[in-house]
Amino acid sequence: MLLPSVQRGLRIGAIAFAILTYLVLVGLPLRLGDLALPILAGAMALFFWLALRGGKSKQDVFNRQPALLFTAGLSGGLTAGLLIAALLAVFVNLTSSGVRLQPIFDKMTPPNLAALYGVAPGAIVGGELSPLAWLQQALLLTVASGVGAALVLVERWARGRPTPRISALRWIPLLLPIALFLFVLWLGMPGVTFGGNNRGTIRLLAAMVTIGAGILALRAAHPGRERQLLSLLYLAGVAYLPFTLDQFQNSVLGIVFIFVMMGLGLNIVVGFAGLLDLGYVAFFAIGAYMYAFLSAPFSSPWLSAQLQSLGIPANAPLLSFWMALPITMLAGWIGGVLLGIPVLRLRGDYLAIVTLGFGEIIRLFMLNLAELTNGPRGLLNIAPPYLFGYNLGNPRDIFILGLIGSAVIAFSAYRLDNSRLGRAWIAMREDQDVAQATGVNLVRTKLLAFAIGALFAALAGQLYAARQTNIFPENFSLFVSIDALSLVIVGGMGSIPGVVLGALALKGLPEVLRGVDEYRIVTFAALLVTMMIVRPEGIIPSTRRRRELHEEAEPVVGEDVPSVLERLAPELKSDNPDGGKK
Amino acid sequence: MLVLDQIHTYYDRIHALKGVSLTVDKGEIVTLIGSNGAGKTTTLRTISGLLHPRMGSIYFEGQPIDHLPAHEITRLGISQSPEGRKIFARLTVRENLELGAFTRTDRAAIREDMERVMELFPRLRERLNQRGGTLSGGEQQMLAIGRALMSRPRLLLLDEPSMGLAPLLVDQIFRIIRNINEQGTTILLVEQNAHVALSIAHRAYVMETGVIVLEGPAAQVLASPQVREAYLGG
Description:
The structure holds two protein chains of two kinds.
Chain A: H1 2-25, H2 28-32, H3 36-53, H4 56-62, H5 66-96, H6 110-117, H7 121-126, H8 131-160, H9 171-188, H10 199-220, H11 225-244, H12 247-272, H13 281-295, H14 301-309, H15 321-340, H16 348-368, H17 370-373, E1 386-387, E2 390-391, H18 395-417, H19 420-430, H20 432-437, H21 442-468, H22 478-491, H23 496-512, H24 520-534, H25 543-549, H26 564-568
Antiparallel strand pairs in A: 1-2
Helix pairs in contact in A: 1-5, 3-8, 5-8, 9-10, 9-11, 10-11, 10-12, 10-23, 12-18, 12-21, 12-22, 12-23, 13-15, 13-16, 13-21, 15-21, 18-21, 19-21, 22-23
Chain B: E1 2-11, E2 14-24, E3 29-34, H1 40-47, E4 55-60, E5 63-64, H2 70-76, E6 78-81, H3 93-100, H4 107-120, H5 122-126, H6 137-149, E7 155-159, H7 167-182, E8 186-191, H8 194-200, E9 203-208, E10 211-217, H9 218-223, H10 225-231
């Protein structure tokens, strides 16, 4: 048993080394500055914890015996540490002998590496590093792996407690968002110097983690008074956020919540109805352009000519943001139906390809129909929203509008999920033939999924246009579709809170790691691949999806899963309190 | 109650049903037997609207239904338990049953019907919160029939309920089918297992390569030398 656990340690250590090398390649250590060493060590401890706890079967073999667990952990830490030390040695030798790595790996700068190793940059450039400094990192990683192994033991101990519900540990997730929120407030106070140049970024990250932790806390809270109280606190906290954050932070969170709005719409199409849509950006573009036409008709050569011939002055917005809302929504709806009709008979892969094409058609249309859309020069000077004469176009108010829009859409999506239409979507997603045989009108159900999803995307598009004030066809590339789809998948398909977490992770994190931004797609890929292996059902899976992907959790006879019908009509549940069990 | 008049159904250019006519009267169990590929399932899918005939007409309670889409036919009171136990494998037993009642809005009555289904199939009650896909073959068949019953059909279409089941289970399922019929549901039963089907049916049709070759009371069909030779092993 000792040998396999050492082998396992070697494997984990090699992966840890790969992750650290990757972080150097994307230049993360330098961005973290003085905090690089503690943060990386903490992240590695978390990595070792996740790697060591492993799957269910591995837990049985290794984790019952702490000695084997620590053997695996420590050999892993040592492996990673020695590999890092070797890399450092190679690097220092190359640098001191005049070889320049920077043209090949642009982030392989001495300061960056020095930050990772916690040594002075000058020492690396001069090649005057003592062998002891090389081993410092090996020691640190070994300690981190030990902490990771200890975490596994702590976790097992906590899980093994007979009544985890009354354990004090339960309060940690509930109080965490409050603590984080206070941290955000404290960071914003004048005179606080924590984090130095990176304070703003750290504050943004903390604000994002607060929102995410709040969502997880709401799910961890017991239903009833506890959850109600927590929701109130949470709402108050989130409502206060825009007023305490600075422009940059608000603008990042604004775009995050525009993507939340879009993700919630796509979640209906993909998560609820099971229709894979790769051209979802089309509806986002339709919403943005529709608002642009209504708000800045003077940017469109054809429209201004038409208006002039009708005697309407074309140098001012036709409709305000609020008056344009219903028209944008209608345009999104029509767009959804127009895409829906030709793809009614398509399923799976074929549907994905056609929707992909649709997204590109809309973009090319915007690009080439220059008379109407002004082509690549875009539509300019779109009006921001006004309320009682007050301009809402600044990042703070756009963030607030994004929050309100997301809340409205999330509520609608939640009601739809638990409606008759929601059940029809589930049936259709599972098996179209049987759904039809049980009385589901496939044409209507499918078109409604596309239309409602498109409507929400159009709303997001209108807010986006109002935020940017200038829009160009290149804002609506395939990557927007991919971003939206990725955040739905990462968050957990069919899960409404999952969309928020997915958007924070995929749209917010790249902003936090702005130094990494050019490697964003690589980061995406790495994150997605890891996610799909570790947690295929997403960060917060919907109850049903979790059941689908984790067969070993079966059977759930003891657990009373709230059924579709009971969520629709809770009063029915009382006639049968034991949920039909005998 | 149900009349098929000279139905011709095609799969693209393949002529699957070549003028099938049959009737099902109220309160009956009628069985349609025949070997693989005879067109039994095609007939059922044509009735339930998943396929549409190119020629001929279908009447349900006097109303033509051959042009209606499947979901409207379900609303009229025809419910199908599809071949190969097509249950929603990833949904729980309870959700499967609830989706069976999709066309209905009377929640209290749905609850009662669910109780009734679970009385017919006590095994489903034990499995209520389990995923459909984790049920045994027999249980899945029970679930498929139970789900079809949830729409309160007046005519129940059963496609090969004996498929892939142990003989003991087959007997059990067919007892329940007769029970359902005695409670007032008319049944059209498609089967390859001619012996069991004929033992509970009132009348029978025998099908071969898209045409009906023999029809009559079940006992008479069972006794016919043609059937004995072809389906019952002489």
